[in-house]
Amino acid sequence: MKLKPILSAVLFCAVSLSASAQNDSVTIRKIYDEALVNGKAYENLHYLCKNIGQRISGSANAQKAVEWSKKLMEGYGFDKVYLQEVMVPHWVRGEKEQGFIIDGKTRTPVALAALGMSVGTPKAGITAEVIELHSLKELETLGADKIKGKIVFFNRPFDERFIEAGRAYGTAGDQRNLGPGAASKYGAVAVIVRSLTSALDNYPHTGATSYGTNTPIPAAALSTIAANKLSETIKNAKGKPVQFFLKDNCQMLPDAQSFNVVGELKGTEEPNQFITVGGHLDSWDLAEGAHDDGTGVMQSAEVLRIFKAMGYKPKHSIRAVFFMNEENGDRGGLKYAELAAANKEEHIAAIESDGGGFTPRGFGITTSAATLQKINENWKPLFTPYQSDHLTQGGGGSDIGPLKQTVPGVTLIGFQADSQRYFDIHHTPNDVFENVNKRELELGAASMASLVYLIDQHGLKF
Amino acid sequence: MKLKPILSAVLFCAVSLSASAQNDSVTIRKIYDEALVNGKAYENLHYLCKNIGQRISGSANAQKAVEWSKKLMEGYGFDKVYLQEVMVPHWVRGEKEQGFIIDGKTRTPVALAALGMSVGTPKAGITAEVIELHSLKELETLGADKIKGKIVFFNRPFDERFIEAGRAYGTAGDQRNLGPGAASKYGAVAVIVRSLTSALDNYPHTGATSYGTNTPIPAAALSTIAANKLSETIKNAKGKPVQFFLKDNCQMLPDAQSFNVVGELKGTEEPNQFITVGGHLDSWDLAEGAHDDGTGVMQSAEVLRIFKAMGYKPKHSIRAVFFMNEENGDRGGLKYAELAAANKEEHIAAIESDGGGFTPRGFGITTSAATLQKINENWKPLFTPYQSDHLTQGGGGSDIGPLKQTVPGVTLIGFQADSQRYFDIHHTPNDVFENVNKRELELGAASMASLVYLIDQHGLKF
User: Fold this and answer.
1) End-to-end alpha-carbon separation of chain B, Å?
2) What Gene Ontology cellular component terms go with this record (chains A, B) (predicted)?
3) Beta-carbon separation of B440 and A426 below 8 A
4) Which B residues 235-294 touch A at CB under 8 Å?
5) Residues B284-305: pLDDT tens digits?
6) Tell me: the pLDDT tens digits for B329-347?
7) If you classify domain B18-91+254-458 with CATH, what class do you get?
8) In the CATH scheme, what is the homologous superfamily, with its name and number, of domain A8-90+254-458?
9) Which of B367, B389, B366, B387 is closest to B378 using CA atoms?
């Protein structure tokens, strides 16, 4: 690409709008300017990733992250900064896992990582015949006879036809989330799962599994390269049994004390009516948790910082919430919802950023079709110059979800960033600061601040 | 981010459309399926980047790229594959450049790269006092007295307030494109320019400079870290002269023979009416030219491959054109336009992909406001499910631009990918295959094929 002459006038887009919308348009331009010129989210994320690093619930690092986050928001002079105590699951991975494909006399080591909340294997590991499946339904079809004593290998890849990568993740995810519990019911001794990603590489993607009422059995994710290798080995064995060796050292410790971190700008007109914007502070133990979800918490704090820097005094109280324990328990989200009800707070809206800090595309909004249409008529033109104007039906997040039960009338909204690269690095050691782009992160913070501003000014009842 | 249950029904979006639009919607879904499930652009790009690599105009590698591209398209069985001969400038960088900041007795080496088309320094290099400017206008203000005999250092950074990074590039770009020629007019002995990027790193970004009728003087780009270092040194010197040493070894050789590579599907109804889709095959010498513009050419070939794979027989002739010499001469684009006129071809539209192979956002279309509105009314709903629905005024590309002069009635269209990361790597050794995401590339190819399909079916006269 070469240079083309560009008039500087295009910096400020001329859009024909009503006087009120014109005001909003000017304020939103100021929000973007502040985010892009004086933004702090990127340097804050650097600190979180590089000076603290992984921060799984219950860990010493999670506690460090809580303390640093509180100081950060206090330093910005928000009206109130405080902690909400919450007890969280304390799962530890222990020593690095081992896995081998055993094909006759050949033992091939493969890249794998225990799933979060998995139980450990016996010290000597587990060796058993491996059976490859592509859905949970196949367990039923095959029945206990064929599964008992075996290691079940779920190997259904992402459906690449989905446009939003999160939907491919959603439809493949039962293998990781429910597969181990389901296989246990049929007598499997362990489960290994193809990593939930489109990428073909050697990173295993961890993530929570949930056994429900089934007996826990060890469960681990294979990298996609390892999964392909195992599948190929099974195919080439032509019915001869292939075995797998798995050893992991996971443990559940007693619940640990932890905290949500909350920063608040007090509303000038309706201080007991809240707009919450948040992400989760905890991460998986293998990663810096840059995109998942360092970007989300840093964008949330940035929303309030931008308002303060602009001298914008919100009518309603605006909260940035750094939720604890999204990854393996949702205890922070549950606690926040419980306290909101106990304190008789009214909540207008809650917005979660937990899909990575990539270029913003818009927001998913859980509301009626009629309201969504009104939102689009009124606000879409304000977001179009920023290319963050996909305002679609349905959205929220794991942390804000519980509010729906405890605080009637809250509208749940999910910030939507470009999803294509997210699952390349999600829940892997490659989810690092270096994979976050400064401008993409800042554009996301600005679009979140713009939506909070519009809700603060106009509400969500059209 | 955790898992949320998703119904697989969401794969296919229900949109209320007319019967004709319904047909289009079904075909577009097939286009995306083919691109995402059986896409070849990514593996082709891998070959181009890793087995051929840099391919600056006139180089042996450019010739290799031409031959391989022709074979590739022949292998796909397009109706016609051929070369268009064109003579191209043959600029060579020579031995690696050297640059030092000389502050009293301290010589600090800095990362820099000669600008494309720059002349070389004398063998011993050039040492002179450096003067920091932020615009070409300042040359005029200061006048020849203050500039003569000095090295001019243009150091105006990107204006971060632009939402599309290409606009920041456009407004900062005069420093590189015209700065050396302009400074030469005032007696400067060399020019060094801050790299055209938002990124703060040590990659110098090359790119063409154009001296016009001014005497050529050596010109080089500094990495942004080097530019900041030099600026700081000048500031700390408090008026004491700071010198700079520049040595480069560039040469202009005689023009060389090269080629555009053209692949064609013959129209079933109007074979002499063309829709062209293209990118440029040449790259800068420092880079693999992955995003600039390996992605563009591979997406263009993919458009035709998708049509063949689907059994779609276009009414009009569809061409994929791999243009030669976009980076430093535009000779391929000029030749294509010249031949189109000479052969009395009608051209309905030409679409260029030369902004990187990132997630598609839409298309910039150079047409009347009335036609753009019609295009939006009719086609935007078809692109919305694919999040590639920003159909905006103004767009094209350097390669297709000359068609406007020779073929009346052609509509020029620029494919628009997400721009945020492009200038991090643009014209640097970091523009490598590894920075291209498979799905993003494929989504772009699919959106280009979808637009070509719609133009083929409905034309651009509403």
Assistant:
1) 45
2) extracellular space; lysosome
3) no
4) 292-293
5) 999 899 999 999 999 999 999 9
6) 999 999 999 999 999 999 9
7) alpha beta
8) Zn peptidases (3.40.630.10)
9) B389
Phi and psi at A151, nearest 5°, equal -95, 120
Tokens for B436? 């291209």
Report how far residue B197's alpha carbon sits from residue B392's, in angstroms, rounded to the nearest whole number: 24
Q: Are B160 and A36 inside 8 Å of each other by CB?
A: yes
Does the CB of B167 have a partner CB in chain A at under 8 Å? yes
Per the CB < 8 A criterion, the answer to whether A92 and A253 are in contact is yes
Domain B94-249, what architecture? 3-Layer(bba) Sandwich (3.50)
| Minimum distance, in Å, between the CA of residue A217 and any CA atom of chain B | 20
From the candidates A34, A302, A326, A352, which is the catalytic residue?
A326
Q: Are residues A1 and B426, on separate chains, in Cβ contact within 8 Å? A: yes
Closest chain A residue to B444, measured at CA: A163
Find the CB nearest B208 among A2, A6, A208. Answer: A2
Over chain A (462 residues), the average pLDDT of each successive run of 10 is: 51 63 96 98 98 98 98 98 98 97 96 98 98 98 98 98 97 98 98 98 98 98 98 97 97 98 98 98 96 98 98 98 98 98 98 98 98 97 97 97 96 98 98 98 98 98 86
Q: Furthest-apart CA pair in chain A: how many Å?
A: 78
A2 interfaces chain B, CB cutoff of 8 Å: yes
Cβ atoms of A250 and A91 within 8 Å: the answer is yes
Do B460 and B411 form a contact (C-beta atoms < 8 A)?
Answer: yes
B264 is known as an active-site residue: no
| Three-state SS at A55 | coil
- Active-site residue, selected from the candidate residues B97, B288, B326, B442: B326
**pLDDT tens per residue, range B127-157:** 999 999 999 999 999 999 999 999 999 999 9
User: Other CB atoms closer than 10 Å to residue B320's CB: what's the count?
Assistant: 29
pTM of the model: 0.95
